[in-house]
Every structure is written in structure tokens, then in C-alpha cells.
Write a structure and sequence with these properties.
Strand content: 15-25%
Structural class: alpha/beta
Number of strands: 14
CATH class of the largest domain: Alpha Beta
Number of domains: 2
Order of helices and strands: EHHHEEEEEEHEHEHEHEHHEHEHEH
Radius of gyration: 22 Å
Bound molecules: iron/sulfur cluster
CATH superfamily of the largest domain: Aldolase class I
Helix content: 25-40%
Largest sheet: 10 strands, mixed
């Protein structure tokens, strides 16, 4: 006897849900109703979806399911940041972080279990890569945060949205998991689900050039580029993907993206590492790169990120004085620049500290020997 596989409904954007409903002999509006029950009301039990016909609820119970992620732990930082660790099977765990501010609530979502890019200043990069998350696993992080926070006493009295912004800046390189990322973004933006604004939904990439334009066509949300170095020699070392897609190509792709983007600039992330990329020579090279004496310059906002140290990296955070010097010099050169406030440090939830727990396939030394050339940090 053939055993029928049940369908996880968190996998579907609305188009996918409509196709699935069609297969059950149901009209598109039934799919939209089901979609709203799941994403807007956080319902997983078909029996309680009271405005669906009984016959549909019966069909669903034998063909489909809604399975949230399984929570391993929750940590709350003194500044209100919450970090959740989820089990995604086979000894892999991923992290999701909620960052509350007075005027917004930002959820930082993971796209992969681990990451293959291996940036030297990122704890996830040191974990190795295990696998891509499915669409269901990506969206289930938002589903969980939204419906958990709604029930928590400090948030449930709020009239405004609890999660106003999503950043794909957790574990993983989102554009290396494109197939699963795009439907998840569509669910985030869908008014029948979370209805997030395209301006407040950001994909952060280390520079997967061919996928940047595709993202513009498929789900044009805000774009952030992890730049971290002003020259190819240094970026090759800090962000090894740079060897495949060097800075000029990546910036060109980002410029092209502005045709589709909801904002007229790209955010450039620059993590400040003491003595590595924070010196005068780097400031000058960065200004030359982004605001050359001829030409219009690159339309960007630079977000300087104080490094959050972790022991394997051997790297140190730039001093506050150096961060200020760096930021002042960029502002003096006419560039737009902000310094990111570090949040959730006491629970290792700050930028670059997300490590989850990954079944590494290769040892760190082997992996790094393959991808990291020996380059002087100040070159
Ligand atoms: S910074 Fe992003 S792309 Fe680089 S290793 Fe970390 S998760 Fe991967």
C-alpha cells in the first residue's frame, strides 16, 4: 500500500497554496482563507478554522499539516533582545533574534543551517555549512516570533505591529538559498499573511552577483551588502566569496538593483576590526571607492558595525575612538554613515555572534586552508 506524504503548508506562498487547493478541488478564495488562518491567526489545527467548510477541513486533515519549528531555548537580554534557538533536525540548530526599539520591532532571520561563505569575523562562518533551510523553516521563524510575542504580556496590549521589520541577516547567505528564500519573502510581504513593507524587509548578502538581479525581478525588497573592506585584497580574506565576485562586480550589481529596489540606496555593512580594516588607509580607499572625484559615486548608506568578538576569530573590536574617527571621516567626505548600536551582547545575539549548532562537514582548518589565502591584513 502506498503511503501518502502529507504536505507542510508553511512551504507555500499564496500562489502555491492556491495550486495546492486546486489539487483538492477547492477554489482560490479557500486557499486565501487557509493562508490567513495560518499566518495571520497562527492556527495550526484545521478543526479550529471555523469558516472553512467541514469537507475541506476533512480533506486537509488527511493531506496536509502545519508544523512550527521546535524550540530548544529562549534567551532574553537586559536590553529586551530575545534570541530563540530552534532544532531543525540532524543535530542542526538555527537562531532567530528579535530586537525591540521604541518605534519598531526587527526580526533577524536565518536562511541556512551554517554558512559556506566563511567570513572571518562571523561566528556562523566558523561553524561550517550543513544545509539550506526550507521555505517552511524560514517563514516558521517569523510565524513563531509573531504569534509568541502577541501572547506575551509586554506586547499583547500593543495596538501597533510587534514585528515591523525583517532582516535576512541571521545565519547563512540568503542568496545561496534563493529557491527557498523567494517564496518566504513573498509570504512576508503578502497582505493576507504578514503584510510587511518592501522597504522594511531587507536581504543582506555577501555579494552573490547573479542572484542580486534576480532578486530585483522576483521579490524587490531592500538590499544590504556586507562590504567590510575597501580593496579586493583585503575583502578576499575577510569575505572569501569576493574571490569569485570582486568588489567592482558586486557594486555594479547593487547599482543595477536600484532599478527595482524600494529605496534609492543600498546599505553597505562594514564591520570594524581593530587594525585590520579600520585604519586611515582603509578610510581613504573606502572614500575613493564610493565617492570617486569623478562620477556620481555609489548611492549608499554605510552602516559601521562594531565587531562582536568570539574566541575562534582572534580579532578585536576597534576602539570607540577609532570607530568615531572612521565615521567622522566618512561623513566629512560627504558619505552617509551610521554606527550600529550593539544589542543583545549579553546573550550572544549581536551581529556576527549567531552560531546555532551545526553538524560541520569539514574541519575549520581544512575549510579555511581551501578558501583563505595569506594576505597582509593591511593590504
Ligand atoms: S557574515 Fe553572513 S555570509 Fe559571512 S559567514 Fe556569516 S552568515 Fe555567512
Amino acid at each position: 500500500m502506498q503511503v501518502q506524504q502529507l504536505q507542510q503548508l508553511l512551504e507555500f506562498d499564496r500562489e502555491g497554496m492556491i495550486e495546492f487547493a486546486k489539487g483538492l478541488g477547492e477554489k482560490p478564495f479557500r486557499a486565501t482563507q487557509l493562508f490567513r488562518w495560518i499566518h495571520q491567526r497562527g492556527m495550526t489545527d484545521f478543526e479550529h478554522m471555523s469558516d472553512l467548510a467541514k469537507s475541506l477541513r476533512e480533506k486537509l486533515s488527511t493531506t496536509a499539516f502545519v508544523q512550527p519549528l521546535s524550540l530548544i531555548s529562549e534567551h532574553r537580554a537586559k536590553d529586551g533582545v530575545i534570541k530563540w534557538l530552534f532544532d531543525v533536525g540532524q543535530s542542526n540548530a538555527i537562531e532567530t533574534v528579535y530586537i525591540p526599539e521604541s518605534d519598531r520591532g526587527t526580526l533577524c532571520i536565518s536562511s541556512q543551517a551554517g554558512c559556506a561563505v566563511g567570513c572571518t569575523f562571523c561566528s556562523t562562518g566558523y561553524q561550517g555549512f550543513s544545509r539550506n533551510l526550507t521555505t517552511a523553516e524560514i517563514i516558521a521563524q517569523l510565524w513563531f516570533a509573531e504569534h509568541t510575542l502577541r501572547k506575551s504580556p509586554e506586547y499583547n496590549a500593543r495596538e501597533n505591529r510587534i514585528i515591523t521589520n525583517v532582516v535576512m541577516m541571521g545565519m547563512g547567505e540568503p542568496l545561496q538559498n534563493y529557491t527557498h528564500l523567494v517564496p518566504a519573502l513573498k509570504i512576508m510581504l503578502d497582505d493576507h499573511a504578514y503584510g510587511l513593507s518592501r522597504r522594511r524587509t531587507t536581504v543582506s548578502t555577501s555579494g552573490v552577483v547573479p542572484m542580486i538581479e534576480r532578486l530585483g525581478l522576483d521579490a524587490p525588497v531592500a538590499l544590504a551588502l556586507s562590504l567590510h573592506a575597501p580593496t579586493d585584497a583585503l575583502r578576499d580574506e575577510l569575505v572569501p566569496l569576493n574571490r569569485k565576485y570582486p568588489i567592482a562586480e558586486v557594486l555594479d550589481a547593487c547599482k543595477g538593483y536600484l532599478r527595482y529596489a524600494p529605496r534609492d540606496f543600498v546599505t553597505l555593512e562594514y564591520c570594524l576590526l581593530d587594525g585590520v580594516n579600520d585604519q586611515e588607509v582603509h578610510i581613504n580607499a573606502l572614500v575613493d571607492l564610493l565617492k570617486p572625484s569623478k562620477g556620481p559615486g555609489f548611492p549608499c548608506k554605510i552602516n559601521l558595525i562594531p565587531f562582536n568578538p568570539f574566541k575562534e576569530s582572534g580579532l578585536k573590536r576597534s576602539s570607540n575612538a577609532q570607530i568615531k574617527r572612521f565615521s567622522d571621516a566618512l561623513l566629512d567626505a560627504g558619505l552617509v554613515c551610521t554606527v550600529r548600536k550593539t544589542r543583545g551582547e549579553d546573550i550572544d545575539a549581536a551581529c556576527g555572534q549567531l552560531a546555532g549548532d551545526i553538524q560541520d562537514r569539514t574541519s575549520i582548518s581544512e575549510r579555511r586552508a581551501k578558501v583563505i589565502p595569506i594576505v597582509s591584513p593591511l593590504s
